[in-house]
Amino acid sequence: MNASKRRVNLLAYLILIVGSILILFPLYITICTTFKTQAESASSFFTLPKSLYLGNYQQILSHPTLKFAYGNTIYITVFSLLAELLVMPPMSFAISRGMHHRGKLFKALYFFFLLGIFLPFQVRMMPLMKLLGDLSMLNPTGMVLLYLAHATCESMFLYVGYLESVSTSLEEAAYIDGASTVQTFYQIILPLMRPILATVMIREGLAIWNDYMLPLICLNRSNTMWTLTLFQYNFQSEFNVDYNQAFSCLVVASLPVIVLYIVMQKQIIGGLTNGAVKE
After folding, report:
1. Is 92 exposed, middle or buried (0-12, 13-18, 19+ CB in 10 A)?
2. Window from 25-39, 115-129, 199-213 with minimum mean pLDDT
3. DSSP code at position 185
4. 214-219: which pairs have CB atoms within 8 A and are 24 or more residues apart?
5. What is the CATH number of the domain that holds 76?
6. pLDDT reading at 276 higher than 50
7. Most buried pick, 5, 42, 47, 94, via CB within 10 A?
8. Is residue 130 one of the residues assigned to a domain?
9. DSSP at 279
10. Is the pTM of this model over 0.70?
11. Which pLDDT value is given to residue 277?
């Protein structure tokens, strides 16, 4: 190995070490703070805890609002993803294939959906809230519909882009064998879309689970409608923040996502990478 290559490798390792420290140090602070009392955090914020103080977790887990926050977050996330899974793939398939066979109408419809990507949420916020308010749907069920509408544009863009790389010869063969369009989609095309389905579901699931802005606007009227992000937010008062309980709440809220990632690590990584290279 020559000197220049060694220098490049050394630089790469230094960058990786610095990046790892930047990622792991906040995690270290968070975990350590959850096992400290307020007095111990005030005197030694960066040091390891002297003992494993569990009072912060006990207060969080015994909080009466936590069950509502968990239930609402799970309900909104699961049903939003199910709604997107039922609506977006067949809609994207229809638009993708319609652009080949019916031309201008479906292309216009596709670009109409794409316009939503360039429209900032702040522009859409007030009309959406007014519409949900008029329909009396400022509740978790209304949030499901809102997330479905919010994800339509970007999901459409990803699905249609993926379907453009799928050969139409399989569909033509199915049509020759007497299959209907519905049978062709669900039996042939949908299984081929697993990589992009996994990618979109992971992306949208994390975004919905961690979203703060939409729940703050729609669900902050009552603590029984809080999501986990609102539950975390309300641990701070006007003049101070209880970092010990706030960080403990953060760990409790993140734990289901961390466990899910550990259990399904291979499937998640496969879903993000399987569609990267086409034969």
Report:
1. buried
2. 115-129
3. I
4. 214/143, 214/146, 214/147, 214/150, 215/143, 217/125, 217/129, 218/129, 218/132, 218/138, 218/139, 218/142, 218/143, 218/146, 219/72, 219/138, 219/139, 219/140, 219/143
5. 1.10.3720.10
6. no
7. 94
8. yes
9. -
10. yes
11. 43
Residue 109 maps to a domain: yes
- Whether residue 50 contacts residue 241, with contact meaning beta carbons closer than 8 Å, is answered with no
Mean pLDDT over each residue of the chain, to the nearest integer: 82
* Assigned token pair, 60: 């969080």
Place of tokens 């993926």: 162
Total count of domains within the chain: 1
* Range from 56-65, 75-84, 126-135, 144-153 that averages highest in pLDDT: 75-84
Rg, Å, the chain Cα set: 24
Closest by alpha carbon to 84, among 22, 158, 10, 168?
A: 158
Domain interval for residue 137: 67-236
Report phi then psi at 21, rounded to 5. Answer: -65, -40
CA distance linking residue 278 with residue 234, whole number of Å: 47
Distance CA 184, CA 190 (A): 9
Domain for residue 265, yes or no?
no
Are 247 and 34 in contact, with CB atoms under 8 Å apart?
yes
**DSSP annotation of 238:** S
Chain CA centroid to CA 180, Å:
34
pLDDT higher than threshold 60 for residue 275: no
- Torsion angles phi and psi, residue 37, rounded to 5: -80, 170
Asked if the structure places residue 43 within a domain, the reply is: no
Least reliable range by pLDDT among 11-20, 165-174, 229-238: 229-238
Q: What is the pLDDT of residues 45-89, one digit of tens each?
A: 788 888 888 888 888 888 888 889 999 999 999 999 999 999 999
